[in-house]
Write a structure and sequence with these properties.
- Helix content is about 60%, strand content about 0%.
- It has about 800 residues and is an all-alpha fold.
- Among the domains are: about 100 residues, Alpha Horseshoe (Serine Threonine Protein Phosphatase 5, Tetratricopeptide repeat); about 240 residues, Serine Threonine Protein Phosphatase 5, Tetratricopeptide repeat, CATH 1.25.40; about 140 residues, Serine Threonine Protein Phosphatase 5, Tetratricopeptide repeat.
- A two-stranded antiparallel sheet has the order 1-2.
- The longest helix is centred in the first third of the chain and has 32 residues.
């Protein structure tokens, strides 16, 4: 089939070449060559219509590769390249007695000269292709003479075909050979039984023996190793020789004397499994690989992207940019085209800046435009704005520390407007949040301040003593549960986080963690939920869970300073101070100045605990430059006092006196110690000097009132420093009485540790207190020995670190 197709394509190509259609002829001949690549005629015609000399030379060389004796190809190639001369092969003499073979007549395609037929496409070098030789007539098939040289040269190309007589004669010879081969074997053949092995059979047996030996040796080695393991490993002995599990029947319902039926008791599990939180069925989980889209603004903004951009600016804290946009949109509204969105958001932005008067004016303007045609949803939004502004105004007025009648009125108005807003449109979340926060503040619960900014911290019980007279508020948990029952608010993360905060403030840390889990289940990008989960785990003494929550927090917020600070808190809770320092260092690299200061303060606390007071003081000094907080001054006071930087400690004491962060008695005790230790000079070799008389006198003024008042711990420390001051001032009897009183207070209260070193150790090397009683009475000469004992006691005392917890 393929040969017929190739022949048909070749004939069509030859016809196209004769007609002068070279491109069509070239394509047909190339397709024919692809099917039958050994066709000399196709290659010869393709050479006659080649595009250039190089292509023609390639075709002619392919012909010579197929048939090296093709004279036409050789002559044409010699015309192109004279270095290739045509060779004439001498005619082969036929052996005597062999009949000449009659060849089939040549086809027109074989006899035609393509170089003559393609006269329209001569060679570029004007060399005419050779003319074909005239073919001679073949002799008769029955002739007995051999071929002459002329006959051989005049034979057409092709495969020589034998004559019919030759074929018949060869067939007879083949049939005779077949008959001879198919004759049956003689029946008298005797078969002999084999007595020797086959060739190579011995080598196979040796190989089999080697493989078997290797397997047996490996098994012996395994048995030896197993025996050694069993002899030296108790666990392996228990597995091999220990008792196996006894099959027991499955628990069944068994009648008992107790009314009803109870299951058959079964062994308790070896360990308790940690329960996994189960979210409600109506909560849709977030895709951890695709962050959820931003929550759509409700009610929908009919004003378009202009108002939406202003809301985003307000959320970022750019109130100066957002308020003009809200005002411009608000001024285009009247009673006929009233939309409350611009009024609502402008009032919230003004309240955030502290301009409550202007915020109420904006809401009043919106209230005047409300008509009977205004929908309940629009009314609810304005009522929600009133509730939030009244609540923020009450919180700001309470920041002064007093509860006035105006505060009570603001709270009442906030409650009334929030309840009306929730009735008109239950899908608004803000009214429920206002009611829950006011209710929790009225209850006197202190939610964790770390979760809330200063302006959102709840009211204290003492501040709401007037407001508590009216107990109209429901429990905040009931309010939030009612809000979460609304279908559109069931997955509101603000409500879930607020419920967790309320539970945390009430000490229900497990419920707080569960609400944080639900909020993160809906949206894993809620920062407040991450913080609530970490702090809930720490409150439950689960530092490992806190570390995992913190790592999740840093995964979603890799640049958050608060995230790394909480990770440091979790690492510190589990006792891994090195990793805690790494986390605090990472937290100090970014964030707001307040966040950086908090990270530096946390790192300084660990350094103080580890005894690196100099590095701790430097961190706290840097933190004070970022955020001047009393707690930072208190921590730096501890580090500076232990490092011996008394001037820095005095600066911190002066700064703390301007606040109410620490009691005055504690500050007096600390300042007295700073004055005495600074006057004594070196911590290792304290010496009295006349220049320190004024410092000792000032210290006694601060410490004397504390020697008989305050806690027993403060009294013991104060009496000890009083003894040091009187010793340097030369009042030996008073010094003896004071140190004796301090030792008595230490014996009465064994938990007291004067500067973390027991006051009992003020005596030298375990000598009994009788040394003090024997030598330290009056101004007798042995008093010098008493003073040496006191001095050695000071050296021991001064080597101990100091912390605020002892005060």
């Amino acid at each position: 089939m393929a040969s017929d197709q190739a022949r048909e394509l070749r004939q069509q190509g030859i016809a196209a070449a004769k007609a002068g259609r070279k491109d069509e002829a070239r394509q047909l001949l190339q397709q024919s060559i692809r099917i039958e690549p050994d066709s000399e005629a196709a290659w010869l015609w393709l050479a006659s219509i080649a595009r250039d000399q190089r292509e023609r030379q390639f075709c002619l060389q392919k012909i010579l590769e197929i048939n090296p004796n093709n004279s036409q190809a050789r002559q044409a190639l010699a015309a192109i390249d004279p270095s290739v001369a045509p060779t004439t092969t001498a005619p082969q003499q036929m052996p005597r007695g062999i009949k000449p073979i009659q060849r089939a007549p040549a086809t027109p395609a074989q006899t035609e000269n393509p170089f003559e037929a393609a006269a329209s496409s001569p060679f570029t070098d004007e060399v005419s292709p050779p003319k074909p030789q005239p073919s001679a007539s073949l002799p008769a098939s029955g002739a007995s003479r051999g071929f002459s040289e002329a006959d051989i040269l005049n034979q057409p190309p092709g495969v020589p075909l034998p004559s019919a007589d030759r074929i018949a004669e060869a067939q007879q010879q083949a049939e005779a050979m077949i008959r001879e081969f198919q004759q049956p074997l003689p029946s008298d053949i005797k078969w002999v039984h084999k007595t020797k092995r086959r060739a190579g059979e011995g080598d196979v047996n040796v190989l089999r023996a080697q493989i078997a030996g290797g397997v047996i040796g490996f098994a012996i080695i395994l048995v030896i190793i197993g025996g050694i393991v069993l002899a030296t490993n108790a666990d392996a002995q228990y597995i091999v020789f220990g008792p196996s599990a006894t099959p027991t029947a499955s628990p069944t319902i068994t009648p008992t004397n107790t009314p009803g039926v109870t299951p058959t008791p079964s062994p308790a599990p070896s360990r308790e499994y940690t329960s996994t939180p189960v979210p409600p069925a109506n909560l849709a989980p977030a895709n951890p690989f695709v962050l959820p889209a931003a929550t759509a603004v409700y009610p929908a903004l009919v004003e378009g992207n202009v108002l939406e951009n202003a809301i985003n600016e307000m959320n970022r804290g750019d109130f100066d940019l957002a308020i003009p946009t809200f005002r411009a949109e608000r001024e285009t509204r009247n009673s006929s085209n009233f939309q409350p969105n611009a009024f609502y958001y402008e009032a919230l932005a003004l309240a955030a800046t502290g301009d409550f008067t202007e915020a109420f004016d904006v809401l009043d303007a919106a209230n005047e435009l409300i008509t009977e045609r205004t929908s309940n949803n629009q009314r609810a939004l304005i009522l929600s704005g009133y509730a939030q502004v009244y609540w923020q105004a009450a919180q700001q007025r309470l920041a002064n520390g007093t509860v006035t009648q105006q505060v009570i009125e603001d709270l009442m108005n906030a409650v009334d407007n929030a309840e009306l807003a929730a009735v008109n449109d239950p899908r608004l979340a803000d009214p429920y949040l206002v009611l829950a926060q006011i209710s929790e503040a009225d209850r006197g619960s202190s939610q964790l301040e770390l979760l809330l900014p200063v302006e959102e911290r709840p009211l204290t019980e003492s501040q709401l003593e007037l407001f508590e007279s009216d107990r109209r508020l429901r429990d905040s948990m009931d309010i939030l549960d009612e809000a979460l029952l609304v279908e559109q608010l069931s997955n509101n993360t603000r409500l879930l986080v607020e419920k967790g905060k309320v539970a945390f403030g009430r000490g229900n840390f497990g419920e707080a963690g569960y609400q944080a889990y639900l909020a993160l289940f809906v949206d894993p990008t809620i920062e407040e939920a991450h913080r609530l989960a970490i702090l809930s785990s720490l409150a439950q003494n689960k530092p490992g869970d806190a570390v995992m929550h913190a790592n999740t927090y840093t995964f979603y917020y890799p640049g958050s300073s608060t995230a790394y600070r909480l990770l440091g808190n979790a690492r510190e809770a589990e006792g891994n101070f090195d990793l805690a320092l790494v986390a605090y260092s990472q937290a100090a690299q970014g964030g707001t100045p307040e966040e950086q200061a908090a990270a530096l303060q946390a790192r300084a606390q660990i350094l103080t605990y580890m005894g690196d007071y100099s590095a701790a003081r430097e961190d706290l000094t840097a933190a004070l430059r970022l955020d001047n907080q009393p707690s930072i001054h208190a921590d730096r006071l501890i580090a500076a006092l232990n490092e011996g930087r008394y001037s820095v400690a005095q600066d911190d004491i002066d700064a703390l006196r301007r606040t109410d962060f620490m009691p005055t008695n504690t500050l007096n005790l600390l300042e007295g110690r700073v004055l005495i230790e600074e006057a004594l000079g070196s911590r290792d070799e304290p010496e009295c000097s006349e220049d320190g008389t004024d410092a000792f006198a000032r210290a006694l003024t601060l410490l004397n009132p504390l020697s008989l008042s305050g806690t027993a711990e403060n009294q013991a420390i104060a009496n000890e420093y009083i003894a040091r001051a009187h010793y340097c001032l030369g009042d030996m009897n008073v010094a003896y009485n004071s140190i004796n009183l301090a030792l008595g207070q230490a014996e009465t209260h064994p938990d007291i540790t004067g500067g973390r070193g027991s006051l009992r150790k003020l005596t030298i090397s375990g000598r009994p207190r009788a040394i003090m009683n024997g030598f330290c009475r009056g101004a007798t000469p042995p008093l010098s020995l008493c003073l040496k004992i006191l001095r050695r006691g000071w050296r021991h005392f001064l080597r101990q670190p100091v912390g605020l917890r002892q005060w």
